[in-house]
Design brief:
Order of helices and strands: HHHHHHEEHEHEEHEEEEHEHH
Structural class: alpha+beta
Helix content: 40-55%
Number of helices: 12
Strand content: 15-25%
Radius of gyration: 42 Å
Largest sheet: 8 strands, mixed
Length: 360
């Protein structure tokens, strides 16, 4: 009895101390294999008398069963520990957001998004999109638009002039998208209803101005086009773009060589808390310029002012993007900073529409 108790304590202690399944298997073979210590005891039963076998058999068989049970229990514990270790090493934090799919990982630049928003709004009003080259002739950029020869906009401090060509004429980087108005009026017949988004260039650089910026102009030519139509178009645009139910607009007399009469347009806003909100408050913010197309411009395009008239307007795309989306500085628009574009950019599938909402 004492020998069996001692052997059981030793075997169970070795089972409990087994560090892995390999060492546990070696211990099983040493105890329960063909030549194991417990198996050797079982072999001795055959040489015993019936009385001894009756007394010793249950003790040895009990030892075998308890050792087998301890080994099986230890094997399960080792397997569970190994699984826990593997799960810890290969753990996936399901609380983290999913990685975006490749087709949605990029971002649309705010300027591109705003141009799409503007296009969606004016397309709903029956406008089409017109485009033209960035490099223009002096005649289309200035003369045809009724700029007199000594007008300050022709000077070097405003305009980027290119080197003279073989004829001594200098082309310019267009200072506005208005040359496309001339091209459109010379190539199409009335009625005309277009918007003209594009890049423009001027000598200017600070927090709210850059040498290259974006502008959209609108042009309507028709027999009955008038200022009332102009005011309605601008009001409908501002309500749709800033996504408000109503806006108050203020038209102040101004001067542009290519329109007569001309006006600067202010829009009602609130500046409380350092945030600009449209459609409420008692403040005003200048938003765009507009007017009726000057008769001289119509004549320069081969149109008879006594037969047709029209109106035009222009707004800085970068400026209204800053106002709508709360961007304090214009310069990061052109710095290619991935952190900025990830913050202010739009998802590729966020296509603006008046039905679904311009900004979702």
């Amino acid at each position: 009895m004492t020998d069996l108790d001692t052997l059981e304590r030793d075997l169970l202690a070795q089972v409990a101390a087994a560090a892995d399944e390999a060492s546990l298997e070696a211990l099983r073979v040493a105890a329960l294999g063909k030549k194991g210590s417990v198996s050797e005891l079982l072999k001795t039963l055959g040489a015993m008398s019936p009385e001894e076998r009756k007394q010793r058999g249950p003790l040895i068989n009990g030892l075998r069963d308890r050792v087998q049970g301890a080994i099986a229990q230890r094997r399960d514990a080792l397997a569970e520990a190994a699984l826990e270790a593997r799960l810890a090493a290969e753990r996936i934090d399901v609380t983290l957001p999913l990685r975006e799919a490749p087709e949605s990982r990029g971002r649309i630049h705010p300027i591109s998004q705003v141009i799409d928003e503007i296009t969606a709004i004016f397309a709903d009003m029956g406008f089409s999109v017109a485009e033209g080259p960035d490099i223009e002739t002096d005649e289309l950029n200035f003369t045809a638009l009724n700029f007199p020869p000594g007008h300050p906009a022709r000077e070097m401090h405003d305009t980027f002039f290119l080197a003279p060509d073989a004829e001594g004429k200098r082309k310019v980087l267009r200072t506005h998208t208005s040359p496309v108005q001339i091209r459109t009026m010379r190539s199409q017949t009335s009625p005309i209803r277009v918007i003209i988004p594009g890049r423009t260039y001027r000598h200017d650089s600070d927090q709210t101005h850059t040498p290259m910026f974006h502008q959209v102009e609108g042009l309507v030519i028709d027999k009955a086009a008038n200022i009332a139509n102009l005011k309605w178009v601008l009001e409908a645009f501002c309500k749709a773009f800033f996504e408000v139910d109503a806006v108050k607009m203020r038209f102040r007399p101004s001067f542009f060589p290519f329109t007569e009469p001309s006006a600067e347009v202010d829009i009602q806003c609130s500046r409380k808390g350092g945030e600009i909100r449209f459609g409420e408050g008692t403040d005003w913010l200048e938003i765009l310029g507009c007017g009726m197309v000057h008769p001289n411009v119509l004549r320069n395009c081969g149109l008879d002012p006594s037969e047709v008239q029209g109106f035009a307007f222009g707004v800085g795309i970068d400026r209204i993007a800053m106002l709508k989306y709360g961007m304090p500085d214009l310069r990061p628009f052109f710095e290619a900073d991935l952190r900025w574009i990830e913050h202010y950019g739009f998802r590729p599938l966020d296509v603006p529409s008046l039905i679904g909402g311009l900004t979702g």
